[in-house]
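Human: If only I could read C-alpha cells as easily as an amino acid sequence. Take your time, and here it is.
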Amino acid sequence: MVCDLTLEGRADLVAAYPFVSTVHLVGRAVTPSEDRQLYDKFSRWDNKTQRGRNEMIECKKLYDSWWPEVLYRRLFHVVTHVSRPDFIFADYQVEAARDVAQYCCIPLAFMWPQMPWLMAPPHSWIPGEPGTQVRCLTSEHASMRDRLYDQTYLVRYAPQLLHLFLWTRSMRKQAGVYSMPSL
C-alpha cells in the first residue's frame, strides 16, 4: 500500500498517480486570508534584501507551524496499524512525513514543484546550490557574478536560517520531540 500525506484541499493532486492507494489529510488547508498574505509575500519576494529573506522564512514557518498536528495525526494511524503503508508519498510541505518515515522505518518520497533545495548533487551545469538559483538555472549564460552570487546563497540566508532552526527546535521540543528533521 502506498499512501499520500497531504493537507486538506490537495487530495486531488495524486489523481495522476494510480499507484497511490490511500490519501490521508493530515492538516488543515490554507485559509483564503492566509493564502492572500502568502501570495503577497511571494510576489514581493526579493532575496537581495533582508526583508525579502525574512518574509520567505515567515512563509516557511507558517507551513511548518502545522507540524505537531500533522505528526501526531499520522503517527496515530501508523503506530496503531490503522493504515501502515509500505511507502509514503508526501507533499513537500508536510515536514512531519520525514519524522513518521524515520520513526516507523517506512520509505518516503516527496512531490516537489521544482528542483528540491539542497537535495540534488551538485553538477557543473548548475550554478550554486541546486534548487536555490535566482538568476539562472543552468550555467550556459551565467556570468561570473551570477555564479558567485548563487554560490553565496547560504551565507546570505545565514541569519534567517539560524532563526528558522531555533524556532523549529523550540517547536519540536514543545511537542516532545528532541531530534531535528533530516534532509
